[in-house]
Amino acid sequence: MAIATAFFRLLGKWLAHPAGVGLGIGLVAFVAVAGLRLLGGLQPLELAAYDLYLNTRPAAGWHEDRVAVVLINDDDIRQLGQWPLTDDTLSRVVENLLQAGPAAVGFDLYRDLPVAPGTARFESLLGVHQQVYFVMKFGGQNAARVAAPPALGGTERVGFADLIVDPGGFVRRGLLFLDDGQTVGYSLAWRLATHYLAARSIAPAPGEPNPDHVRLGLVTLRPLEANDGPYVRSDAAGYQFLIDYKGGANPFATYSLSDVLDKRLPPNALRGRVVLVGVSADSVKDFFLTPFNHRQSDSAGTPGVMVHAHAVSQLLRAGIDGERPMAFVTPDWLYLGMFVWSLIAVATALWVRVLGVFAVLAGVETAALLGGSYAAFLAGWWVPVVPLALVGIVCAGLSIAYLSSLERKERRYLMDIFSKQVSPDVAAEMWRSRDEFIKGGRLEPRLLTATILFTDLHNFTPVAERLTPTELMDWLNLYMDRMAGLVMQHGGVVDDYYGDAIKADFGVPIARTNEQAMDEDARQAVRCALAMGVALETMNRDWEAAGLPHISMRVGIATGEVVAGCLGSTKRMKFTTLGDIVNTAARLETYGKDDPKVTAPDSISRVLISEETARRIGSNFVTEAVGALKLKGKETVVTVYRVEGEQMPAR
Question: In Å, how far are 136, 411, 442, 486 from 574, measured between CA atoms?
Answer without folding.
Answer: 87, 15, 12, 21
